Amino acid sequence: MKILLEDQVQIEINGLMLEGILAVPPDAKGLVLFAHGSGSSRHSPRNNFVAQVLGDHGVGTLLMDLLSPEEDQDPSARFDIALLTERLVAATHWVHHQRLTKHLSLGYFGASTGAAAALRAAAQLGAQVHAVVSRGGRPDLAGPSLLAKVTCPTLLLVGSLDEEVLALNRQAARQMHADVHLTVVPGATHLFEEPGTLEAVARHAAQWFVQHLPVKP
């Protein structure tokens, strides 16, 4: 599919410049912001693969670093859900002010700790966020009170062999009042490295966003 725009972008948040990769297909059905997990970045091969599949389905993507290179050296920052959420909310506001993206409905794709930030941001922004997908995420880290405030349809994707994270996702799903679906990917571990498992993640995510991101006039 021809890409209308694919470019490196810089997002200024409180004087800090964060790097991102923005791709918007023609007649995009919406835009998905990626919240990467601990120790990951916009260069994550797994998230880039998912972003490519979303683009093939007509969904725009923004892969961005929620931490500066210096911050990412601090392991505690990678688990600072409040900080990651603040950055994701700021990036969402940035998207709302860009000519090519301000008209698009928005979704979040979160991995690992990024899933908690995505759900917290969705709880904070309410109707501004239309769908969330979590890949091997830690939605439990969002906290039960904020999980209960999420209103948009949420898809939790977990590998069947990722038993501890699967149990935490089941717990988080019970604390949510939104339309939440837990999909278990057979034979997958935490990083979905087994043949065909990441493809399954991308397929489920694309279907979810196409279904739940409304096309704005």
List the helices and strands and how they pair.
Elements: E1 5-13, E2 16-24, E3 31-35, H1 45-56, E4 60-64, H2 75-78, H3 81-96, E5 106-111, H4 113-125, E6 129-135, H5 144-147, E7 154-159, H6 163-174, E8 180-185, H7 197-212
Parallel strand pairs: 3-4, 3-5, 5-6, 6-7, 7-8
Antiparallel strand pairs: 1-2, 2-4
Structural account:
By secondary structure, this protein is α/β, with parallel strands linked by helices. It has one domain: 3-Layer(aba) Sandwich (Rossmann fold). It contains seven helices and eight strands. The protein has helices at 45-56, 75-78, 81-96, 113-125, 144-147, 163-174, 197-212; strands at residues 5-13, 16-24, 31-35, 60-64, 106-111, 129-135, 154-159, 180-185. Strands 1-2-4-3-5-6-7-8 form an eight-stranded mixed beta sheet, sandwiched between helices. Strand 7 (154-159), helix 6 (163-174) and strand 8 (180-185) form a beta-alpha-beta unit. Helix 1 (45-56) crosses helix 7 (197-212) and helix 3 packs across helix 4 (113-125). The chain is globular, with a radius of gyration of 16 Å. The two termini are 22 Å apart.
